[in-house]
Amino acid sequence: MQGSPNGHAEPYLELDGISKSFGRFQALCGVALAVERGELVTFLGPSGCGKTTLLRIIAGLETQDTGTIVQGGKDISRLPAIRRDYGIVFQSYALFPNLTIADNVAYGLVNRRKGRDEIRTRVAELLRLVGLPDSGNKYPGQLSGGQQQRIALARALASSPGLLLLDEPLSALDALERLRLRGEIRALQQRLGVTTILVTHDQEEALSMADRIVVMNHGRVEQVGSPRDVYERPATSFAADFIGKINVLPAVAVDAKCFRVGEMTLAVARFDIAAGGAAKLYLRPEDITVHVDGAAAIGPNALAAKVTKVEFLGAFCLIGLAPDVSGVPALTANVPRQAVDAGGFTPGARVNVDLPPSCLRVLA
User: Fold this and answer.
1) Which one of 201, 220, 242 terminates a domain?
2) What's the Rg (C-alpha) of the chain?
């Protein structure tokens, strides 16, 4: 079973051996996962990796070919969607345009035959919760995209579900609204303590919102871990390449602490690969230290290089580097804008570079 963070005997949601095919296309291959009560877990991966299919299977909107789903100690593997305990928010909002906002939020409560006063109180509470207390008499077409998504969230929470499912809920919004709403959703989820699964292909969204990230590729789970774990300690080449920018250096093991890259020997933290074994070394751009010409690099992996490009990205710049050592591939370093201005890092400039051994990740 993948990834129960606290080692609890009975996670709130357990998936075991979930597989799904559409004709000859294998969408999911034996997925296993444990989700603790109150967690926000993101399914992160490229289009077609199976993350939305997995979410729909949890919701009962698709049926798995094999495998079991247990929620709150109850096997729901074959329960129809209407009998499962969840609320769901879709990318497209899916609000009823002919109903008022209050009636949209109340829709599930009406179907559950709740009393009129109870419904009115609950709707008012939820509209306050999502920051739209005076919108009950409006219609969806009168609200912005971000406001409509808040209403979709309120509707999903109306019945106090044990599980909240979010299917790329922010992808249709502009960048500023996405940033604002993801903070609001995370704060609301933590306040309510509702177990939540978020599907996204946006790395920044996953890193900023999740307690744990499930990295998926070709219907399989590549890695499960905290945002910091999957960013700093990728378990597979795919996880390293997919999340954030990264430098990749093809290497051959010299011994447990050294690798040969071109004509340079690089020290790494201890890693057990037999001498002569092929590997890849991964290094984040922000982990590279760049010194102006004349300021010596002092680490064990010091080398000289030429600046090939400077890409301005606001608070920092991406610096392209061509190492002087034969066989060492081009590198990209992340340097604060102030350091770029002070150091005179311009194309053609000579610099000295440190590649810290503790930051070099080794994958066989």
Assistant:
1) 242
2) 25
28-74 pLDDT, tens per residue? 999 999 999 999 999 999 999 999 999 999 999 999 999 999 999 99
> What range defines the domain where residue 270 resides?
247-363
DSSP letter for 184, please. Answer: H
Q: Are residues 212 and 280 in the same domain?
A: no
Strand pairing of 74-75 and 247-255? unpaired
CA angle 89, 90, 94 (to 5 degrees): 95
Give Cα 74 distance to the centre of its chain: 28
pLDDT digits (tens, 9 = 90+) for 138-169: 999 999 999 999 999 999 999 999 999 999 99
Alpha helices in 164-294, H assignment, sequence order: 175-192, 203-209, 227-232, 237-242
Q: In what order do the strands lie in the sheet with 195-200?
A: 87-89, 163-167, 195-200, 40-44, 212-217, 220-225
Euclidean distance between the first and final Cα of the chain, in Å? 24
Q: Is residue 5 part of a domain?
A: no
Q: pTM of the predicted model, to two decimals?
A: 0.90
229 and 252 part of one domain: no
Maximal C-alpha separation, the chain: 77
